[in-house]
Amino acid sequence: MYVHRDHEMTWTDHVEAARLALPTTARTTGVTRLRQLGLDVGSALPLHFVVEGDHHLVLDGVFLHRTVKMPACDDVGTTVEAAFVAFCADARLIDAISVGSYLLHKEWLDPRLLDLVLTEEKWRRGVPETAHAVPHLEGRCRSIPEAKLFAYVVFASLPVPVVNRPLRLDDGVELTPDLLFEDYGLVVEYEGSHHQDDRAQYNADIDRYALYRRHAVPYEQVTKERMRSPKAAVRLVHAALVAEGYDGPPPDFGDQWESLFLPLSELVRHRRGWSSGA
After folding, report:
1. Which of 47, 75, 134, 236 has the fewest CB atoms lying closer than 10 Å?
2. Mean pLDDT of 170-196
3. Residue 254 burial by CB count (10 A; 0-12/13-18/19+): exposed, middle or buried?
4. CA-CA distance, 163 to 84, in Å (whole number)?
């Protein structure tokens, strides 16, 4: 493939160039297909394509997966369900939970179609890993970081919050907090960079937190920077819960917590070994 020397290649250009260089039956899959949806997940390169049959092609920046039967496809690449299964084959549990939860929220991932893949194509790469992750997905999360925060709280064995449920204040105004710990009246909000960069969002946030204060609703803000240390984010939530009367166990950063950051393939392998008595 050739382009004019002055043309600055975009990621989309690289995908199109790879498509033209590969067999016409090849389709984007896994993280590449998910990035085509606009998700900033995984690595931009190498590009992941899948093709049916025993094609051996080596292209810089392209990983061509071979399969005995093509997964379901749409006009762009493999379907989102098939792409998510391929993604889970190499993903950590936390990444599968957060990406899968967001896909559910956007209604890009059809649970019924995903279940068909998991039950009728058990031989396909990524199926055991996806089956392990699916029970932990929370489709009410409106962003990937929000889904991560929810998973951090749950896997640290803190009280399970409700997600994005409307909260009616005394004057009838309704707000929709990211996480609400109903037994303690505590609201936890995730604050990403767009909350500062988008001036409309920034001002809406100011108004929302003013309403929380006016109605004596305790809240905690977990910023993008605080999320860089998952344990620190959980400890922040725990401290806020304690301030509102929580006297249960502190966060548990044991095996369940550690499993979040392990590859699903490793978790599945360990589970199989345990089941067989190994």
Report:
1. 75
2. 88
3. exposed
4. 23
Q: Assign 250 to helix, strand or coil.
A: coil
**All domains of the chain in start order, with CATH:** 11-136 (no CATH), 158-251 (3.40.960)
* Angle, CA 92 vertex, CA 90 and CA 95 arms, to 5°: 105
pLDDT at 199: 63
36-70 pLDDT, tens digit each: 999 999 999 999 999 999 877 889 999 999 999 99
Query: Any residues with CB less than 8 A from the CB of 42 and at least 6 apart, and which?
Result: 30, 31, 34, 35, 87, 91, 95
CA-CA distance, 122 to 124, in Å (whole number)? Answer: 5
How far is C-alpha 208 from the chain's CA centre? 26
Confirm if 164 and 141 have CB atoms less than 8 A apart: yes
Alpha-carbon torsion angle 228, 234, 240, 241, nearest 10? 160
105-115 per-position pLDDT tens digit: 999 999 999 99
Q: CB count, 10 Å around CB of 247? A: 6
The Cα–Cα gap between 170 and 157 comes to 31
- Strand 167-168 relative to strand 162-163, pairing: unpaired
Q: Which carries the bigger pLDDT value, residue 15 or residue 270?
A: 15
Reading the block at residue 251, the tokens are 């966060």
